[in-house]
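The passage that follows is intended for readers who have already worked through the single-chain material. We present the inputs for a multi-component assembly, then the predicted structure in tokenized form, and finally a short commentary. You are encouraged to pause after the input and sketch how you expect the pieces to fit together before reading on.
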Amino acid sequence: MTFSRRSLLKGGAGLAALAGLSSEALLDYAKAWAQTAQWKPEAGATINLLRWKRFVQGEEDAFVKIVAAFEKANNVKINVTNESFDDIQPKASVAANTGVGPDIVWPLHVTPHLFPDKLVDMTDVAEYLGKKYGGWVPVAELYGKAKGGAMNGKWICVPVAINGGYMNYRIKAMNDAGFSKFPDKTDGLLELCKALKAKGTPAGFALGHASGDANAWLHWLLWSHGAFLVDKDDKVIINSPETAKALEYCKALYETFIPGTPSWNDSNNNKAFLSGELYLTANGISIYAAAKASGDAKQLAIAEDMDHAFFPLGPSGKPAELQLAFPLMVFKYSKAPQACKAFTAFMLEANQFNPWLEGAAGYLTHCLNAYDANPVWTADPKRAPFREAAKRTLPISGLGSVGEKAATAVADFVVVDMFANYCTGREDLKGAIAQAERQAKRIYR
Amino acid sequence: MTTPASPKSGGTGHTASTWERLQSDRNWLGFWFMVPAAFFLLFFLAYPLGKGVWMSLTDIKIGRPGQFVGLENYEELILYDKTFLYATGFTLVYTAIASAIKFALGLYLAILLNNNMPFKSFIRSIVLIPFIVPTVLSAIAFWWIFDSQFSIISWFLRKINLIDHNINFLGDPLMAQATVIFCNIWRGVPFIAITLLAGLQTVSPSLYEAATLDGASRWQIFKNITYPLLTPIIAVVMTFSVLFTFTDFQLIWAMTRGGPVNATHLMATYSYQKGILGGQLGEGSAIATAMVPFLLAAIMVSFYGLQQRKWQQGAKE
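Having made your guess, compare it with the prediction:
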């Protein structure tokens, strides 16, 4: 997802951000907000902020506006650094260890849980926002609150947004295959894929080391069958009949795929879909957004003929998706913790957050319920599934604790390799599970 | 090599202080000259290597200190980690096949280029191109050439009706392995060819003349003159080639990231995946350290080989 989004969307979906506020109006609001806010920024403070590099220009533009307004209204300087998101966790870890580095870090999912004791207690900010904006979605609390240790039960970060991925399909191909609407059960999905293959308009899902796409859809496949890598006590439970069923299902699905999926990284399905060779895949909104922004007649036709759908429900009967979370955290060593808190709260206030969400054009989903009403979700009905991303996702750890081990298992492709090993025939059912179990036990020892 | 001791001039009663002697003594002078080089070697080579080995004995993670765990990482890798065993096996196969073919092609090309022909220097410089292009760029080009959907090779063969569906170059484990080996060969041949060409040009033409007068065939000339005289260069160039191939990273990472199903992981890419992406620095270092014995063996072969007269002078004693 990462590579393709950034490269395909440069300058693409910034249009929505234009609908946001003008800088002057934003500044007036920021000044008024600063008068009443419960956090009083340290005068003349400088905040260093490290964030992930944007997927889409419109989001960054909106973010820059928020930063500028906050700086002026509060006499605070904010230096923003952008890094690709693989690099943020190592840098944050080193900062936590040495006590020197950025004041605010905006990393991925579990990073705050690697060093909860080094982080500022954000409970007041999270509760303020939760009360004002209709409460947090459940997964936000899982990512936000520390479990165990000195900070137990306190918010150590504020989950700003979730990056959603869903089924991307071509409407006509689906209709021709005999489906009037996208199947909402895994059985239906298999039937659809079989029919698509028979019609020569195949589906394809990444089975390679695609850190975004492959992890997302294969974790959904595992979880939707009621199988998990670990239980709530982090005990490894991958060796189960449910896992075997998930593997069998995946193999049947794999038989219908376009050739080459075991070699796919995050950008292959985007390319194949946009070139009209692939008719169903799992991806973020980037394929659609890129097609719409391209201005090319052929791609616009693809955008017109495509839509998104939830990941179907499996035998477990519950939504079980894996979406990426982006929480924001403040280090204790910061000399301006109040300014950092004020900035976090300011950013998530409706006046700022709404234009920001619009700028993100569906790439990012809010974690505060009130933002369901944001026009970004209704302006284009094809974006609608992405609105639910934060509500339908499990944390990256599945049932287990949100922490480093869960992140390692995902980064190490334990689940992806298990499926790929079985689907490609490199391992038999038992061998594929045993290998994943071994790896997981090693990580969770 | 000692400096004559400065005559003690009883008159002034001055004796050189230890510091002064350290400054002027010839033996110590040699030491001082060595200090910068030693510093670089120790600080930038020995220290990181030692640190890597030490890290492989701990459970260190990125950004956090680790506990000493002894050989546990190695035990885990060797006894249980199938991917590590595959990666090691494939690294050896990759190195062996690629190096052998690179050597054969390189030598052949060098001999061709050693002939007199029009535009000699131009052709020689063209040959170097694969070596000059940054590896990542050529790897990305290959990635497109062998893409499962957009491969130009598949496209062409389909156009001329030789095949009816795309060739699954990078999606099938065996095909993917063959493909990355091919790309490594493409990239590595020029280095060997040009180095061997330099070696060929040091062979004195009079030897060839003498051999021709004696009625030697071309094969005899190659076997008895060219090849023996080229051995020292071959030893050096093949050592380098084996080292480069064994530690290859960019090509694999840009093309397959070790996939499909970890079939093209080399030890270097697997180490990166475990250590940096997975955050398990300890295990990553263990994989990297496990490369050292193989590399050492390759170096030893050429090191001891080069000490032999036969290799040095290209003739039997």
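Commentary: Confidence is low (pLDDT under 50) at residues 1-13 of chain B. Chain B has 15 helices and no strands. How closely did your sketch match?
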